[in-house]
Amino acid sequence: MSDLAIELCHVSLTRRGVPILADVSLELARDEYLAVLGPNGGGKTTLLKVMLGLVRPDSGTVRILGREPEQARGQVGYVPQHVRFDLDFPIRVLDVVRMGRLAAREPFRRFRGEDDAAAHAALERVEMSPLAGRPIGALSGGQRQRVLIARALAMEPRILLMDEPMASLDERIGRNLWELLEELSQQLAIVLVSHDIGAISHYVRSVACLNVSLHGHPARELSAEAIEAAYGCPIELLAHGHPHRVLAPHGSDPS
Known about the structure:
Elements: E1 4-15, E2 18-29, E3 33-37, H1 44-52, E4 59-64, E5 76-79, H2 93-98, H3 113-125, H4 141-154, E6 159-163, H5 171-184, E7 189-194, H6 197-200, E8 206-211, E9 213-219, H7 224-231, E10 235-239, E11 242-246
Parallel strand pairs: 3-7, 3-8, 5-6, 6-7
Antiparallel strand pairs: 1-2, 1-4, 8-9, 10-11
């Protein structure tokens, strides 16, 4: 059995003549915590969908836990960036979270006690237990995001893929979730995508920059060269909480 959670080798994808991913290769250990940074439209969400087997690349190979992505879905939790809810649909928070158990059980089998226990434990971890019986449509955007994270955790995954998971969360809840992810990263592999450089740099253990191509080898340090390659313009970094300007000539010289 491979020691790698995720293996991508020379993965490329084009849509309507436009390159989405170009020759992306990545290896992720089973206890790794990786942030994928890059601008909007840089291919981050598509990369997650390739890992999930929802999108097939034009070329290259993808292995998840040593298998085809479709074969590993029952062990991969996913928190999407945007989920549309019919706010009038009568479904409770607990029922949404229990859906995370569907991939690990036989078709048409009723939920059992262990499914309810896993759902309640996941809600507790994201501080949503008091709202378990509330209709999902009655929640705020940030609360619904926490429910989606709980749904992914309820399946007790070996890999957790997250697309902008801190969107719509206030500072306190966001900080608590960062701490939760750090704890979870001791037990499973996590891939988190974001375009917010400052938010992730303190918490994750390695960073990759993606803008169609993958720039730089994953490492905890944020390389100015790798980030500039990904964003296509000069950047400004924060190092240890203090401004550290890394600016190259940009446009005309004001002097």
